Amino acid sequence: MDAAVLARLAPALQARWPHLRLRQPPAEDALADLVGTVAGTLRAAVADHGAATLAVSGGRSPVALFEALRTQALPWAQLTVTLVDERWVADGHPDRNDRLVREHLLQGPAAAAQFVPLIAPGPLPTLAEAAAAAEARLAALPPADLVLLGMGADAHTASLFPGSPDLAAGLDPRQPARVLAMRLPDPAPQPAHPRLSWTLPQLLRARALMLPLQGADKLATLARVVADPARPASPAWPIAHLLQQTAVPFTLWLPH
Length: 256
Description:
There is one protein chain. With 256 residues, the protein is α/β, with parallel strands linked by helices. The protein has a single domain, classed as Rossmann fold (3-Layer(aba) Sandwich), CATH 3.40.50.1360. The longest helix has 20 residues. The radius of gyration is 17 Å and the shape is globular.
């Protein structure tokens, strides 16, 4: 990351959203710091109420975290893992987020965790059927103890994409649905599959939110989000709707 940009960004973030929790470990310690923070949060949840639910994002960014987290001495049998978004493609397709979780996180001792995918294994249902089934599965789960978010260079999070015809519904604070089918904007992000995504109210049912952020393009996007004077947050920046809220503790993890 550009150290000069980060040096300006951190105080700007805290000036605009003073409730944010910023973690800025040295780059060489970044992964260990993140894994330790996630593992500690899950252990504390198990100690507090006997179980923990972790919701994760897909894409390639969390692979290193997943592979490091699975080596932790956690009470895996008391953990439930689920996803905040999924790509509507056939079971086993390389673009499926649940495949990523199974291959990179739920290995070794971590395989003892209960996994609740958004789309069940087997024949691919219609997008509407998949959304309805995911809604029922999420309704049966307790609030997530920790949601590990991602953010794209377009400021999307989960599969709440700027320009999607369904974005307003996904960001509506009165939205009763936990998960929605999301059509993609035009031009579509890659891979260009329709998605299932948690809604903003479902994300805000969590006990804690965390966004690990690395990469010059994402850092530049975050700087633009912070500089946008729109209050409340503009739909152009879906991530800002989570950054601005104060109901759920939000940790922004920015290694330097």
